[in-house]
Structure formats: C-alpha cells, structure tokens
Amino acid sequence: MFRVTQFMQEILDPRPIGPRRNPPGPVVIWNLIRRCNLTCLHCYSISADKDFPGELNTAEVFRVMDDLKAFGVPVLILSGGEPLLRPDIYDIAQRAKAMGFYVGLSSNGTLIDETNVDKIAAVGFDYVGISLDGLKATHDKFRRKPGGFEAALGGIRLCRDAGAKVGLRFTLTQDNAQDLPGLLDLMEAERIDKFYLSHLNYAGRGNRNRKHDAHFRTTRQAMDLIFDRCWRHVRAGRPLEFVTGNNDADGPYLLAWAQEYFPERAEHIRQKLLQWGGNASGVNVANIDNLGNVHPDTMWWNYCLGNVRERPFSRIWPDVSDPLMAGLKRSPRPVKGRCAACRHLAICNGNTRVRAWQTTEDFWAEDPGCYLTDEEIGLVGSEARHQGSEVVVTP
Ligand SMILES: C[S@@+](CC[C@H](N)C(=O)[O-])C[C@H]1O[C@@H](n2cnc3c(N)ncnc32)[C@H](O)[C@@H]1O
Ligand code: SF4
C-alpha cells in the first residue's frame, strides 16, 4: 500500500524522519468466503456464485482472531469473495472491533441496500472499500454484471450517508484506463473519502487475463493523473486520500515527480520513501484464505505456508524454513535482473514477486510490471532494455 497523500503532505509540511517503525504484526487481509455474486475478469480469488466447501466456521474464525490479536496483528481487512454473503459477517466484524482491531470491509457493494446498511454502520467499520472498475459500461463489462455499476454506487452512497468512511477501489487495466478521469470526478462529486488505485496483479483470473494489463505508458499517465489530483487536494487542505497498491514502482515514480516539481523537498521525500520501504508481502502484509490457508499476501493463493486449523498463524508467519518467506523477509531481497540493478531497490523492495513468478517461475526474477525506464532506474549499456513506453510483453 502506497499512501500518495501522506507523501504529498510531506512536501507542504515536512516532518522529521524519525526511526523506522516496525509494526508488531502484519496487516491481515482475510478472505472469509470465496462465494461471490460476481465473476470479475481479474479476480485473484477466482470467485463465483457457488459454495466452496471446507470454509472456516464462526468458532474457528473467532479462535484465529484470538491468536492474531495475541500475535500483535493491528488490522483485519474482511474480504472475499463477497464478505456480505457470509451470514456471520456482522458477528465477526463486531467481535473484531470489540477486540481492538482496525477493521476494514472489502466489498463489491452490490449487496448493500436499505435492509443491511444500518447493520454495516452499527459495526463501525474503520473503512469500507467498494470496487468501481470504471464508469457504467466499463464496470459492468469488467465485472460481468449488467447493472453492477448502479448497484455498487448505490452501496457507496448508502454507506457514506450512514457515516462510514468509504473508499472507491479501481483496478487499472488497458481496458478501463480511459475511465480514470471520470471516476476521479465522480469521487469528488459524490464526496467519497478515499481512492485506491490497484495495479493488476497476475493472480487467478487476473493472471489468465494478464494480456489486458495496462501498457507502461498508460500506467504512467494514470499515475500522473493521480499525483495531479492528489496534489490539488493536498494544496487546498481537503482531506481526500489517494493510495495505490500492487506496484511499488509508484514510490520511485513519486520521487521523480518531486524531483521535477519540488527539487528542494526531493531528498526529504526520498528519506521518507526509504522509511516506507516498498513491498511488504510476507512481512507486514499477510493473507488468510477461506479455507484457513496462510499466504504471503492475497495474490499468492497457489502458494500455501500452512493452515490455521493445523498450526496457529502466530507459528506459521515467523517460520522462515519456507524458501519464499525466507527471501521475502531478507533485506535486501534476493532479486535479479533489472530489480537487482535498480538504484531504487531500497525504496520499492523489488516490487511484486507474484508477477515475476507467474511469468518466469522464479520468485526472484525482475518484476515485469515495473514501468520505470532504464534511465530512471540507473541502468546503462547492455543492461538497458526498456524505455518505459512500450507495451508490457508477458510470455
Ligand atoms: C477479491 S476482491 C474481494 C472483495 C469484493 N468482492 C470486491 O470485489 O471488492 C478484493 C479487491 O481485490 C481486487 N482485485 C481482484 N483481483 C485482482 C487482481 N488480479 N489484481 C489487482 N486487484 C485485484 C478487486 O478489484 C477488489 O477491489
Ligand atoms: S473481484 Fe470481488 S466482486 Fe469480483 S468476482 Fe472477485 S470477489 Fe467477486
């Protein structure tokens, strides 16, 4: 997670660098159910409208929550599938809140209506993230549901009016990039608190459909637009939040933006970016799936570290006998290719290992989704291969 707003605030109001804070436990994204009323083209969990047997029951979820709390996990993001299809979602969320977790709900929004919005509001979720992957026609095509856009927007409005902090989540591909300006306008017009731009990760249906990933030029234009909007809001003192995910090259790209427009602040921003430290999979971000399997993050569903029915999360997570976890926890990570040679490695931490693995079967190969040019990452001569403007070519 890359908090664009926070870095831009540092330009207006720089705060001391201070020591790097290591959270006691990871943020846990928890896919409580795999069933979903939609079948989106990019869905990492390959969800569908059917039952998936063997999911954790309420008592098991509560037991895992106790372990997570004792282990120092600060944040639970309750996700799916569609988490609102779980009848016990309110009990789980209420208990999580009572235990002192920061609790987020990750929903497609289409099932939020007058009958359940009060129950959602009563939980007091710290954040409700609802996906909009484009304006009406694009969203409905992407999410394969006629009427899906109107239903999701209805859910957003209901949550907003009930006083919840709401965020709009958009996964960028080559097919929906044209709608980004319109979605940002919508966010402003609808007084939505937060915008999360997620880059496509190569997992589940997102891997099968990876040829639709945004071209580098498209990604750069999208990031320029996010930076531009975010800066306008920061300068105007409006508390809208812009965050991005699944491409840690966004950090060095923001540094280049600061170097161009605020050179006097660039070194401060660089120090803050180093403190952020880039990709946190397997370290400060964890995933538990619907069956209780633990993964280094949500995009690693086909790589299992253990199951909470057999071993508590608190024992699975620190175990570095697993080669992927050992490498993810190393600093610097044992990355190769462009990532190894990159002058920004300490900022982005080698970006997204899932894309590297899905395209090469090597955890540590360079991330093919890095959209920075050779010049930007400091590559010269024979190492230099791409200039950041051609399309992503993935095998
Ligand atoms: C799996 S969904 C579950 C919650 C809910 N059903 C929804 O769609 O928001 C969680 C988030 O991950 C995003 N997502 C799914 N597959 C992805 C992928 N391959 N790359 C990047 N983001 C993805 C979705 O768009 C959504 O915002
Ligand atoms: S991305 Fe969300 S809404 Fe779409 S199929 Fe997956 S779980 Fe369902």
TrEMBL record:
Protein name (record): Pre-heme d1 synthase
Keyword field contains S-adenosyl-L-methionine: yes
Needed co-factor(s): [4Fe-4S] cluster
Cited Gene3D superfamilies: Aldolase class I
Similarity comment: family membership: Belongs to the radical SAM superfamily.
A Pfam family annotated for this UniProt entry: Radical_SAM
InterPro entries attached to this UniProt entry: Aldolase_TIM (IPR013785), Elp3/MiaA/NifB-like_rSAM (IPR006638), Heme_synthase-like (IPR034480), HemeD1_Synth_NirJ (IPR023992), PqqE-like (IPR017200), Radical_SAM_PqqE_MftC-like (IPR050377), rSAM (IPR007197), rSAM_sf (IPR058240)
